[in-house]
Design brief:
Low-confidence stretches: none
Radius of gyration: 12 Å
Strand order of the largest sheet: 1-3-2-4-5
Strand content: 25-35%
Largest sheet: 5 strands, mixed
Oligomer: single chain
Distance between the termini: 28 Å
Number of strands: 5
Structural class: alpha/beta
Number of helices: 4
Shape: globular
Helix content: 25-40%
Order of helices and strands: EHEHEHEEH
Amino acid sequence: MASAHTTTATDSTFDAEVLGADVPVLVDFWAAWCAPCRQIAPHLERMAEELDGRLKVVKLDAQNNMNTARRYGVSALPTFVLFKDGEEIDRKIGVQGGPTALRRLVDPSLG
């Protein structure tokens, strides 16, 4: 479910796409059946477009990539995990606060 400005990761590509990135990465752990996940998706796309080159937005279907979801303790969807230099630095669960809350999550890491 990636688009022009977001990237899709899987269990097998997660480390290269996320941990090996040279910019901060916001990972959206989502699933097709998750209504809030679908609700926030257009906002993530806009944020990815606005911050292109400064932030990478990666979508990971947690239902089809359970190893990575388990590895990061994801138990609710959507969960947004922010990585910088290969390390988790923050996370947000759910869509409460909408796109503004996601910007507050990522802005401190955008140097």
